[in-house]
Amino acid sequence: MAIEVGAVVEGEVTGITNFGAFLQLPEGKVGLIHISEVASTYVKDVHDFLKEHQKVKAKVLSIDARGKIGLSLKQMEEKPEAPVKPVKPKIAAMPEKKAVRPAGPMSFEDKLSKFMKDSDDRLLDLRRNTECKRGGRGASRER
Q1: Class of residue 110 by CB neighbours under 10 A (exposed 0-12, middle 13-18, buried 19+)
Q2: What is the chain's pLDDT, residue by residue, as a tens digit (143 residues)?
Q3: Which of 8, 9, 70, 82 lies in disulfide reach of 61, CB 3.0 to 4.6 Å?
Q4: What distance lies between CA 15 and its chain's CA centroid?
Q5: Of 19, 110, 11, the residue nearest 52 (C-alpha)
Q6: CB 83 within 8 A of CB 96
Q7: CA angle, 38 as apex, 35 and 42 as ends, to 5°?
Q8: Residue 56 forms beta bridges with which residues?
Q9: Rounded Cα–Cα distance for residues 47 and 53 (Å)
């Protein structure tokens, strides 16, 4: 069986490094499972997921001109469906009145909106204070 991109191959882990694991493939070829392709979660140490002499199935990602074979275990995993988050209704801003927020944690957009409003209010106060101080001194003095 010829090894080609997209094929699923079975091999034995022959070595583990800090950047991935080497797999002995059929026909005496060797492929590399890069650390980013070991699992769908964060991989700090490949030893946590693979052991030497372990038999695994991997998907062939690439074969370059020099014959290096890139493999992936991550693409062999069943992808669980992400739970659908309920969409929170947006609260329309009421003029001159503060919107009543529902009980519970604020969304990122609500926090950002509150921060921007508070920041604008503080900047406006700061500008008023500095303009008053600047206008009363030195500007009208003549030499």
Answers
A1: middle
A2: 578 888 899 999 999 999 999 999 988 899 999 999 998 889 899 999 999 999 999 999 999 888 899 999 988 876 656 566 666 666 655 555 555 555 568 788 888 889 999 999 888 888 888 776 666 555 455 54
A3: 70
A4: 29
A5: 11
A6: no
A7: 75
A8: 11
A9: 12
